[in-house]
TrEMBL record:
Record-given protein name: Dihydropteroate synthase
DUF6513 domain ranges (all copies): 3-87
InterPro entries xref list: Dihydropteroate_synth-like_sf, DUF6513
SUPFAM superfamilies assigned to the protein according to its UniProt record, in alphabetical order: Dihydropteroate synthetase-like
Organism field: Candidatus Methylumidiphilus alinenensis
Superkingdom of origin: Bacteria
Length: 464
């Protein structure tokens, strides 16, 4: 027999809920029960406990997504599983169709090297603080950048301090003296060696990252690879990613050709030449670049956060690698897995049309304002009227709150949020901050393991 689900709702949402469920043609039986309140979002676990007298023979109960309280305790009291549905009832089809297939983003197979570009100019304590921030955002290796013609007298001290806190460390320089010093101080990786500097690998235990001796010269990279294989040493290979209009497309071809020539070598891509040198939001760039890495089996990137617009590059790369790993494991497109990289826009920003909101308004009998957005603009309504505009300043004279400073302030904040959401095409929920995905640390994605968990998870396959 098909599962029987009890949906609890409020007066305003009862009719739309029945319509959505009927349109789903669900594989389960359902009962819709209005719990005796106008707004479903105001439902609480205690209210359900007091008011629900019959569970109608249901196998489980679904309550509105904004229902507050301890559902675990309520489940025990009712002897039924009680769970939250989506915040908007129009999302129910996706809730039932996709929820069970959504993977945990707790695995990945790509390492993030996060470069501290000004390390020679920073005190050791400052290096440690920044390294901790990078680790929190998902970095696996802290890369100490060496600046041209700039002394780095405290390199050894910095490496020791980082190693004592459990960091993997790389040293990034084209000067042999710094690479040797870094290797002797215990650096795990050295960026970068070419066919003429392989002798450094004979003097230290660090894993080298190999680059062409001359830019674009893959034959010299082949010789460097052969030299390291002859030594029986681990290494990574970086054919060098170039900026747009300075060889970007050709550099992608080099990565592809390197993988063709060397199917089994570990590769690294320095993504900063795109994220730092392109004035566009970096989340999409990181998703695209890590998609290329996923297809080519590139299992390490070097990320930088120098430009202010690239200040979340490590966090974005961390989420991107998890999404892409999950998509590859499922042999699927990187869609409908996680929305954390869509900071500006959303897949379904407007759950209701203005006409549907006006139907809700007809049932409102109290003075409390409801604010919702639709494709037409911002909508605010209570028992006294329904008003719409694209500019909150047009709405203020219509609301009658001129002499209530607190209420006016609250409505100003909420209408401003609604305007931003409408302009960008984001989901707006009254009394909740806008969700900026992984661009903002307080996003729900940070704490929901189904969405995003940057710390405490594991690298599935350790790279060289």
């Amino acid at each position: 027999m098909a599962e029987h689900i009890l949906f609890l709702t409020g007066k305003l949402a009862e009719k739309p809920l029945r319509q959505v469920l009927a349109g789903m043609a669900p594989e389960f039986r359902f009962t819709v029960h209005e719990l005796g309140l106008s707004v479903a979002a105001l439902m609480t676990a205690d209210m359900i406990r007091r008011r629900l007298k019959d569970t109608f023979g249901a196998d489980r109960v679904i309550v509105p997504g904004r229902c507050q309280g301890d559902l675990g305790r309520l489940s025990a009291d009712l002897r039924l599983t009680v769970e939250r549905g989506p915040d908007e009832l129009r999302d129910l089809p996706e809730f039932f169709g996709k929820k069970s297939k959504k993977p945990l983003l707790d695995r990945y197979d790509l390492r993030i090297f996060a470069e501290i570009t000004d390390a020679p100019r920073m005190e050791v304590d400052s290096i440690l603080r920044l390294a901790r921030d990078y680790r929190h955002d998902g970095a696996d290796v802290i890369d100490l950048g060496c600046l041209p013609e700039t002394a780095f007298d405290h390199m050894e001290q910095a490496i020791t301090a980082l190693k004592e806190e459990g960091f993997l460390v790389s040293v990034d320089s084209l000067e042999s003296q710094y690479l040797l010093r870094g290797g002797r101080a215990g650096a795990d990786f050295l960026l970068s060696l070419d066919e003429h500097s392989l002798w450094i690998s004979d003097a230290v235990a660090s894993t080298p990252v190999l680059i062409p001796a001359r830019h674009k010269d893959l034959d010299s990279l082949d010789r460097a690879i052969a030299g390291m294989k002859a030594r029986g040493r681990k290494f990574l290979v970086d054919p060098i990613l170039d900026p747009i209009h300075f060889g970007f497309a050709d550099s992608l071809v080099r990565y592809h050709e390197t993988r063709r020539r060397h199917p089994d070598v570990e590769m690294l891509m320095g993504v900063g030449n795109l994220t730092e040198l392109t004035h566009a939001d970096t989340a999409g760039m990181n998703a695209m670049l890590l998609g290329i890495c996923s297809e080519l089996g590139v299992r390490a990137i070097l990320a930088t956060q120098v430009s202010k617009h690239a200040c979340k590059a490590v966090r974005e790369a961390d989420l991107a690698r998890r999404i892409l790993f999950a998509a590859r494991e499922m042999d699927s497109l990187p869609k409908l897995i996680n929305d954390g990289l869509m900071a500006l826009h959303e897949r379904k920003p407007f759950p209701y049309t203005q006409e549907e909101l006006k139907e809700f308004w007809q049932a409102v009998r109290d003075p409390s304002f409801r604010i919702q957005i639709s494709p037409e603009g911002i909508n605010i309504y209570n028992r006294d009227g329904f008003h719409s505009a694209t500019d909150p300043f047009e709405l203020y004279p219509l609301l009658g709150v001129e002499h209530d400073g607190g209420h006016a302030f609250y409505l100003g904040v909420e209408l401003a949020r609604a305007q931003i959401a409408w302009q960008l095409g984001k989901r707006y929920n009254q009394d909740e901050p806008l969700d900026w995905g992984c661009a903002y640390e307080s996003a729900a994605a940070i704490v929901d393991p189904h969405v995003y968990k940057p710390a405490g998870t594991t690298l599935k396959k350790q790279g060289s």
